[in-house]
Specification:
676 residues, Serine Threonine Protein Phosphatase 5, Tetratricopeptide repeat, four-stranded mixed beta sheet, two-stranded antiparallel sheet
Amino acid sequence: MKIWKNIITGVALSGILAACQDLDIPPKNILSGSDIYNEGGITAYMAGLYNHLPMEDFNMGDDGGRGGFFNWNSEKTTLGSTGEFANNQCGNNVIYGDKGYWKDGYQIIRQANVLIQDLPNYVGTLQGAESWIAEAKFVRAYTYFALVKRYGGVPLLEEPQGIDDDLIMPRSSHQDCVDFILKDLDDAINGMTKTKTNGRANKYVAAAFKSRVALYAGSIARYGEAAVYTGESGTMLTGIPASLANDYFRQAYDAAKIVEEGGYALHKGSDKRQAFYEVFDKAASSEESIFIREYDINNYVHSWDKLMSPEAWTGGYGGRYFVPLDWVELFDGLPLDPATGYLKTTDDEGYYKVYDSSHGIFDGAEPRLLASIMIPGDLYKGGHELDMRCGLLVNDVTPDQKILKTTKDDGKTTYSWDNGVKEFKVNGQVVAVRSTKKPSEGQTYENTGIAIAGFNGPSTSGGNHCNTGIYGVKWIQRDQAPVDLHRSTQPWIDIRYAEVLLNRAEAAIELAQNGASDAGTLLNDAMVCINDVRDRAGADLLTSTDQLADLTTPTNVRGTGKNSMVFAPTKGLQIVRVERYKELAVEHKLYWDLRRWFTADTQIKEFRWRMLAPYLFLSTAVKDDETGIPHGKYIFDTRVCDSYGGQHNFDSKYYYEKIPDSERKVNYLLEQNNRY
């Protein structure tokens, strides 16, 4: 990637590299062949295209546009209702649609079409012309997919349109668009080099991306019947015929297997927690990274560390990344109630279990979870110890005194912070104390000098503090001191090998459960892929392909057992969907999974974030001489977060978004999606 960066710098692409600017490659009629059709010119031209790919990275907004550093924590963020992510900016009723991503996509497509049209004239005179053509087709396919997954069928442009061309074009069918994208990707696979360069595609990047596109199309065909819309023109604008599902799943499976030839592998190590953390911390050099976007402090940066690290460590702006308890409960090694799938923090009689530390409830959790969240007692950001505490149990209460859980944890019932505290009683007396002040204000209890709430949250008096009791850490540079806004440079991984393995496994299960003649081979391969991911994660391994062949319908109601957060048509498919939920969270993948599975409107319906609330026995507290942070015995309460996040819903019309009105005004042949 360093060579690639140096080339970009050398051709002075500062305008192209600016995150918030429109695609500013000069129009074709200003360029002569000598200007662009040489190695340096093509490299610069392509660099601009890559930089403007609609890669949903740190700076990507919900509308596909890039601008500002508030995109990923906006009140309409897609991450805020899928259960993988929470913050105080997400609002109450998360909705989507009518975001307007269109113009920027067609700008990129036009520029790619210029190369695809002109470069054949230079075959034989420009070294690598064939490979450049294939690479331009990858760029075009990547961009078209960003449009098609939002809108369904869109106008297909294979040639660059000029000023004098007829710009009035109808939408092609959803199927035709998908087939066009897959054809471009086949050409890219066959025509691109195998050379690995960070930030650029190669044969295996194209194959990995094809597995994503074809898997998406197969899901649309199998599960999207209710959202099929045939316009007045007779074109199926949204939806793909169900009869084609297996064909697309087979393409996804075969494409994923091609990637296996590229030498990519899961990043592993003896310390499984550290190994999973390093997937993101060392993305630029990892054998797992297939397609990434790199950042440079001089040209292109983001603000993830500043926004998402605990506010107490960042001096403001931070504290915007915590996770609902529901997502945490998907992981192995936690004490779960088998009937509900919720954390069981009490004994069979309903009295709170006592733990020896603030992280005691996580001590047996799978390493992948521990690498994805901040655990109280761990050191982050240059030696800061996470101090996560909801309140105190007063001094005259000892751990051998039983405290009955009376707060409901049904995913619906809410308690205000103060009323919730009143539920903790011993012999009829309230024994819990919490502060209404920010944890950073450090309100202490009587003369003990011990803060009532932990330094890092939860809070009731405003600010960006962790109201679910669980901070996320994925993408955060754990060992680096906090940085200011617009100073973060950790890479974004758009495609990594774990996703490809899970694409392969899901496609194989879909095929096996729906009549494929090689079902046994497919299920065995799916089990190998899933177990490879699970082994690296430190999770429980599958023991039989019968688990993946299981056609039993899950309950698909939250709180009905382990994994009930993730809806699926069969228990076999639920296994791989849950694995995606655990592995790919906060990578901007799960929202699109819910859209292609057509489960968003039911899985998200009335979803309320739940929290884990640790309470310290003051009678056991011992302050650390250096940090002042108390250690001792804890109990843990679970409940719905008080008002934060509210009820989340997804309107089924948003499976396909609204064609921007501005585009329909200039192109009267653009039929609108139904329900708008």
